[in-house]
Queue: 2 jobs
Job 1
Amino acid sequence: MSAMAFLQDALAVFNAVVLFYFIALNSIYLILFLISLVEVLKFVRRTFFSDYRQMMQSDMTWPISVLIPAHNEEKTIVETVRSMLMVNYGEFEIIVVNDGSEDLTLRRLIDVYELRRTDRPYKRAIPTSNVRAVYGSLSHPNLTVVDKEKGGKSDALNAGINLARYPLFCSIDADSIIEDNALLRVVKPFMEKPDETVAAGGIVRIVNGCDVKDGRVTRIALSDRALPILQVVEYLRAFLTGRVGWSNLQSLLIISGAFGIYRKQEVIEIGGYTHDTDTEDLELVVRLHEHMRRKKKPYRVVFVPDPVCWTEAPETLSVLARQRNRWHRGLLQTLWLHKRMLFNPKYGNVGMFAFPYFAVFELLGPFVETFGYLAVIVSYLLGILDVQFFLMFLAVAVLYGMFLSIAAILLEEISFRRYPGWLDLTKLLAYSVIENFGYRQVLSAMKVKAFWDAIRRRRAWGQMQRRGFQKKDAVAV
Amino acid sequence: MGVAKRILVAEDDPVTRRFVVSLLEERGYEVLVAENGEHALEAATLARPDLIVSDLVMPYRDGYEVLRAIRNDDRVKHTPVLILSMRDHEEDIVRGFEQGADDYVVKPFNAREFVSRVRKLLDPRRA
Amino acid sequence: MQKALVATVLTIALVFLLLTLLIVLGKAWRELRDGRRRARRRVLEPLVLKYAHGSSPSILSALGGGVGAGDRVVVETILLDHVSRVRGVEHERLCRALDELGYVDRFLDALSGPRWWRRAEAAENLGLAGSKRSAKALAEALSDPVSEVRLRAAKALGLVGGRAAVLPLVNALAEPNRWSTIRIADILTNMGREVVAELMDAFPKLNAHAKLAAVDILGRIHSLDAVPWLMSRLSDTEADVRARAAHALGAIGVVDAAPQLRRALNDAEWPVRAMAAKALGRIHDAEAIPELCAALRDREWWVRANAAEALKLAGPMGIDALEGMLADADLYAKHQACLMLEDAGILDRHVAQLAGSGAVRTTAEAVVTRFIQAGQVSRLRELAATHSELSVRSELDRLLGPPVPAPEAP
C-alpha cells in the first residue's frame, strides 16, 4: 500500500471521527438549549415583582455575608464597597478581606468608612495565613474589614468565611458590579428549598461598552470592539443555554467566582477553598457535589438566570489567551483531582453526565477540533481533500454552531432583553454568525495549549508557586 | 394664602414617585422630583425646598447619606426631612431619626396620614 | 450522501433564517406595543390617581365614561401597581375601581383557566385587589395541582384577610406535605391579629407539626390576647408545645409570664428549659437571676447557653452573677460563665484594667485568675501576645505562667 493511500485511509477515519464529534457536541448543546428554553420561560413566568419586595422585608429571608477578597485594589475598592452597601437586601454584612495589599487599599477603606479595630471573636474553622487585624466600621455597622497577610484568593475567601456571621455567604470579585436586586434573586432558590439548596450562581454579563457610574451600570450597551461582543455572544450561549440546562439536570459544575452564593456550613465541612487549582470556584463546587453525594442527602446546586453580575472582559487577544489558559488549566486540574467521579454512579448526574461531557468535549474535544481543522488544511494542500466531506464538516462544525449561537440570542430576546437597542441586536446577530468563523476555533487552539501547559506544570509540581490574585475571575464554559 | 410650599420628593421607584407627586400636587404643593440620591442632594441645595420626602434605598447615595449631607450643609441644614421607606425594622427607624430625620413613614403607607404629617412639618409655627 | 448534505445545509439555513425573523419581528411588535402602552399610561395614570385621591366620585367618571378596549391592560396595570403601594382610603378606592371595572371578575375567571401561569397571575392579582369576595375561589385554588398557583393563592388569601381567608390557611397548616409550613406560617403572621382567635380555636384539631407552627405564629404576632392561652400551653402534655410556648412568651415579652417561665426552668424536658431560659432573657427578669444561675449547671448545653445569655441581658446584676459563677463548683457552669463573659467583652475589659491600680485592678486580677483555673486560657494567651499595652501583656504573662496542657474540656 502506498504512503498516499494509507494517508488517505487514515484521514478518512479521522474525518469520520471529527464529523461524529461535532454532531455529538452540537447535539448535546441542542438538548441543553431545549431544556434551557423551557426552564427560562418557566422562570420568567414565575417571577412576579412583588416577590422581591416581600423578601426584602421578611424576617424569614436568610441573611447573607458578602465576601469581597481584595488585593491591590486601591482605585476601585471604595466604589465597590459602596455599591455593595446599597444593594437591595434585608439583612446582610459585608466582609472585605485585604489580602496583603501593598498599596493604599486598606488606608482608603479606613479613611472612607471610619474603620476601627475590633476584637470580634471568631472561630478559625479553616486555616488561613495570619490575620493581622479585624476592623469594624463606625459609619456602617454591617461592614467588616479583615487585614491579613498575603495568601491568595482562596485563602482570603477562607478568612472571610471564618468571620462570616450568617448561614449563607456570597463571594464577589472586587471589580465586579452587582445589580441592585441580584442578591434577592440569587437567594430565592434557598428560600424555596431551604434544606436542599447548597449553592447557587447567577449569570455573569459583560460590562464592556456599558455606561458605569459610581459602581452602577446606568446604560446597557455593547462594546464597539469585536472581541468583547464575541464574548457576549459566547457568554449568552454558555450561560443561558448551557448552565440553565446543566442546572436543570442537576449537574451544574460551575458557579462563577465572580458571583456565587453558598451555604457556609457545607463549605466549612469540606474545608473551604483550596489552592490546588487555578480556578478555585470550579473546584469548590465539584468538591461540594462530591461531599453532598457522599452524604447521600438530597441537595441541589442551582443556576439562576436573572441576577446579574457585570464583569469586564478582556479586550485584547493576549489577555483573553491568558484568561482562557488559566480557566482551562483549572478545569483540567479539577477534573483530574476528582477523577474518581467519572462514570461513577455514586455521584449521580454529575458523575454520569457532567464529568463525561467535560472529559470528552472539554478535555479531548479541543484536540479533535483543532486537528480536525488542521487535517482539512493538510488535505487541501495535499490535494486529497474530499469536497463532500469538507462541506459536511462545514455544516456540522460551523453552521450547526451558528444556529446554536443565534438560538441563544433568541432566548435572550424572549426572556431578559438586556440589550434593548436595534443596533445592538443587529450586532449580536451578526457576531453570532462571525463567532463560528474563527473565534471558536481560536479558543479551541488555546485549550490545546492549556492542556499542554497543565501537564508540564504537573511535572514541576514541587516548585509550583502559590497563585497570586487574578482579576476577572468569571468562568464560562 | 401665600406662596405654595415647595416639596422635594426623592424616590427611585417611578410608580411610588408618581403617586406621591400627584398626591402632593393635589393638595396644592409645588413638587420637585429626584430619582436618586445624587439628584436629591443637588436639588436640595439648589432649589432649597421647604420639605424633603426621601426614600432610603436609592441609587448613588442612599437616604442616610443624603440626610447626613443635608444636616452638614449650612445652607439647608434646617430643612425638615420625612423618610418614606419600605424598611420597617427597628434599627432602620432608629438610625433614621439619629441621622436627623424629622419623621419616618413606612411603605405601604396611608395617604391621608402622610399628608397630615407633611402639613405638620411645613407648619410655619414650628420653631 | 450528496442529498443528505444538501438537506442538512438547507434545513439549518432555513431554521436559522426563521429564528432571525422571529427575533426581529417579535422585537418590533413588542416595541410598538410597549410604546403605545407607555403613551396611554401617561394619559390615563393621572386620571386614575385623581380618582384615588378623592377628586372623582367613581373611576368611570374619572376616566371619562369608560375604558377603551385597547386600554384595559394599561388601566389594570396602573391600578395593580398603585394598590400595593398604598393603604387606607386610597387603597379602598383603588380596590373598588378594580371591582367596578370588572377586572376582579376577569381574575376570578382566569383563576380556573387552563394555563398554570395565568392562574398564578390571577391569584396574585386577586390578592393585590384585596377582594374579599374572592376568598372562596382562592381557598379552592389552595388545592391546585401546580405548586406555584397554590402558593400565590395562599399569599393572596393572606392579603385579602377576613375570616373566610384565615380558616383555609389555618387548615393548610395541617397539611405539611402539601405546604411549606414555613410559608403558611409567614403568611398567617403577616395577617396579624385577626388570626389569633382562629388559631386558638383550631388548635386542638391540628396535628403535631401544625400545633407548633400555630404557637410560633402567636409569638411572632406579639399578640397580647394570646398570652393567657400561651401560659396555659406551658402545661401542655407535649414537650415541644411547652417549649414553643415558652419561646413565644419570650417573643411577646410580657412580664406577667415570668413566674410561670421560672417554673418552666425546672421542666423535665431540656428543650422546655432552654426556651424558658431564653424567654427570661428577653423579659430581663431580674428576679430570675438565682434560678438562671442554677440553670448554668444544667446537663444540656443549650439550656446553659441560653441561661448565660439571659444573665448577660439582665444587665449589671446578671454580669455580677456570672462573675460569681466563675467560682462555682460545677465545671459546666464555670465554663459557660467564662464563655459568656468572654463573648460579652467583659474579659477583655478586665484584662485592660490589669495595667491600672487599686480595687479595679484587684477585681480584674481575680477574674482573670478564675479563668485560668477554669482552663479557659486561649483568649488570654492571644491577648498576652497581641494586646497593645506592654504592661498588660507582661501582667498576663505573669499570671498565665509557662504553658501547661489544658485540662480536659467538659
Job 2
Amino acid sequence: MDAQTFAGLIARAGDKAYNFAYRLAGNESDARDLVQEAFTRALEHAESYDPTRPFDSWLLRILHNVFLDAMRRHSHSRTLSLDAPAPTQESGWSDLLPEDAESASDELIRRESLDLLQKALKRLPLLYKSAVVLCDIEGLSYEEIAKVTAVPVGTVRSRIHQGRLLLRRAYEELEKSGGRVS
Amino acid sequence: MNTHIVGVEISAFLDGALAVEDRARVDAHVSACPQCRAELESLRHLKLALSSAPRRNMPADLALELERRLVTGARWWTPLARPAFWIPAGAVASAALAVGLWLRASAPGEEIPLEPLLAAHSRYSAEALVPEENSVAANYSAQMTSLYADASDSEAE
Amino acid sequence: MPTPRTARPSKALLAALLAAGVRAGAERLPEPSALLDAALAPPAVPYQGRVMVAQWYGRARTGELMTSAEEMVVHVSPPDRVRREFLAPDDSVARVSISDGDQESVLLIRSGKTVLGNALRADDKVLPAMLERETLMSNYDLSVSSGETVAGRPVWRLTLAPKVDGKSWQTLWVDAETKVVLGSKRWQPKRPFASEARFLSFEPRKVQDPELFRVDDSTAGAIQARGLAPEFLTLDQLRERTGAASRLPDSLPGGFVFESADLFMVRKSPIRHARYTDGLSVLSVFETDRPVSLPKSASIPAGREPLPGPLRASLSGKVLQWKIGARHYTMMGDVSRDLMAEIAKALP
C-alpha cells in the first residue's frame, strides 16, 4: 500500500479514533496524547497493516494498546490490577472501583461540563471500560471487539456484562451523592 | 421461575450476540419473568444512554498537526535505527525523501546490528521485579549514548 | 479485608509491619519475603548519595577478567523521580539521566544532546505482580542475616539463592532505617560474571529540589527516542501482528515463564522480542528472519552442554546466537552457558 492511500485511511479514521480515545481517557488532554502516540505507532507499523482487513479495527487496536501502556505507567496511584477477576459476591464489587483521585476544585470545574455517565465510565477498571465503550459507543460486534482487545470472544462477553454492572453501580453511587466525589 | 437467565446472556441478548436458539429461549423467559425483564430493561437503558452520548470529533488543531506530520514525514523513521537513518525532529524532509527512507531496506545479506537488541534487553532488565536499578540504569543510559551520540560524546581525554 | 491488589504497598506500612516484627533489644531478623517487599516498595523518604557500579563480564582472550566500573550521584524523590549523574573517571559529569515518573531523558553533556523517551518503570508489568512474586518464590530460596553496614549504615542482608544450577544469586543489602536498597550484587558461583552496585555515601533528606527532576523536553534538537517505548504483547498478539506462526513457547527450562513480547523494526527487519522471567532473572529471545551481528568480545567455549551457535559476553549479559531453518535466534541473559544451551534446545 502506498503512503498516500495509507495517509487517507488514517485521516478518515481520525474522528473515530479520537472519540474512542476520549471515552477511554475521560478528558481531552489525555485523549490528544493518546491519539498522537497511536498515530505515531500506526505510522511506524504501517507495513504490518494488512489491507484486506478493516482499517478501523487495526487503528483502534493500536490505540487500545497505547492506552493500556499509558495506564500501566500511571497505575501506581491505583489499587487495582488491569485484569482483576470478577468477585463472586456483590459486596466484592466495591473493591474494583478505585477512589476518584480528583481534588475538590477540579470537581467543581468538572461538574459543570462532564456528564454523570462519563464520570461513571471513568471509574471502570480499564479492560471493562474498553469492552463497554467499543460495544455501546463504537458499536462494534463481539468479534470485532475481540480483535481490537486481542482476547477471546468469551472474555469479551463477560467483560461487557461485568462492565455494565460496574458502570450501573458507579452511576447510581454518583447520582446518590449528587455528583460529588464520595 | 426457578432458574433465571445468566447475566452474561442478558447482555449478549441485548447486543444481538446470541445464537438463534439461545435468543428464543431468553426471549421466552424474559416475557414470563419480571425480575429478568427488569434487569434487561435496566441494562438496555444504560446501553442507550451510552450510545446516545455525543460523539467527540477530533479538535481541528490536532487534525492539522497530524496532517502536517503525514505530509512532512517528520516522524517517519524506524525505532532504534542507527543515527544515520534518523531524521531530526523539526527538520522538514520532502515527502519523497520520507517515503524513500521509509521504504529503504538493508542491502541483501546485510546483518541486523546487535546494539538495538542489547538495548531492548537492557531495558527489560531494568523492569525486572528485583531491579539492580543503578547497575542497569548505568548500562541502559550508556547504550542510549552509544546509539545516539556522535564522536564528540565518546572522545576520551 | 479486601484482597490487596497493590503491586507496591507503601514502604511506610511495610516498615511499620517489619518494626512490629523486630523486638527492641532482641536480634530478631525480619521475615525474608516481608523484607523483600519492603525493599522493592517505592522509597518512603527522599534521599541522595553516591553509588559505585561494577561489573565483571567474562574473560578476555588472554585470560584476564574483563571489568567495568562507574560512579554516579543519585537523587531520589518518592515515589518515582530519579536523577542520576554518571561521572567520568575525573569526577566530571559525563551524562545525566532524569526520570520524572512519566518521561525520561538522557542528557549527553559533551554534545548537549538530549534523548527522550518514556520513563523506565518497574510498574510496567504485564505479568501481574502476584504471579511474578509466586514465580520468584518457586525459583529461589530467601534468607536474611544482620551485622553488616553499607555507607556506614546498619543493613539487613537478604540473599536469594536459585533452586536450579546455572543461575545467578542475588544479594540485597537493605537499610534498616529507610528500607532503601543500599547495595545489590548478582553473581554466579565459580564464574567470572557479576554485577554490583553499592552506595558509598547515603543521605536521607526532608525534601528534594523539584528542579533536579525536571525533564526538559523543549530543547531544540531533543531526540524523541521512540525506541524507549516498547510494547507489551501476548504471544497471540505477537503472532497476529507478524502474521507468522511464531515458535516462541510460553515457558522455558529453568523456571522461566513468558512475560510479554515486543515487535520493532531495525532497518526494515522485524524483530520479535519475547521476554521471559523466573521472577528475578530475565531472558530475552529475539527471533529474526536475518542474521544478527555478533558481539565484539571473544567466544565463550561450551561447557558440559554443546552450544547451537556462538556464545559471547556483553555488558547486557551473555549472547547466544543460532539458526533453525530460515529463522535466526538471539538469546540474552545472565544464566550459565549450560543452562542457555539447554534453553536453546527447548526452542522448537
